[in-house]
Amino acid sequence: MTKADIVEKASAAVDMPKRKGEVVVNMVLRCIIDALAEGERVDLRGFGSFRVSSRHDRTGRNPRTGQEIDIPAKKVPLFRAGKEFRRRVNDDM
């Protein structure tokens, strides 16, 4: 499923034009991204939670040459599925 599919389903569910549905979906995603960029945690009951984790700088190895390289510290977004999300995914299997 793509973002366009989500826009189409959401627009049809609330009987709104696709253009407006796209604005709503984009705004929800933008709010999540902005909150994570500010270091906040985003909890969506029944769906899951998003948070940011920090990774320390470390030394790695180039798999092609075997040469050691320095990997800088960075922040990575993490998602943990909620209880309802996990239950629905497992029940449909």
Automatic annotation (TrEMBL):
Pfam families according to UniProt: Bac_DNA_binding (PF00216)
GO terms (BP aspect): chromosome condensation
Annotated transmembrane regions: none
This protein's GO CC annotations: cytosol
Keywords tagged on the record: DNA condensation, DNA-binding
Gene Ontology MF, one: DNA binding
Keyword DNA-binding: yes
InterPro entries: Hist_DNA-bd (IPR000119), Histone-like_DNA-bd_CS (IPR020816), IHF-like_DNA-bd_dom_sf (IPR010992)
UniProt keyword annotation of Hydrolase present: no
Entry-linked PANTHER family: DNA-BINDING PROTEIN HU, DNA-BINDING PROTEIN HU-BETA
Protein family: Belongs to the bacterial histone-like protein family.
The protein's name in its UniProt record: Histone family protein DNA-binding protein
Organism: Vecturithrix granuli
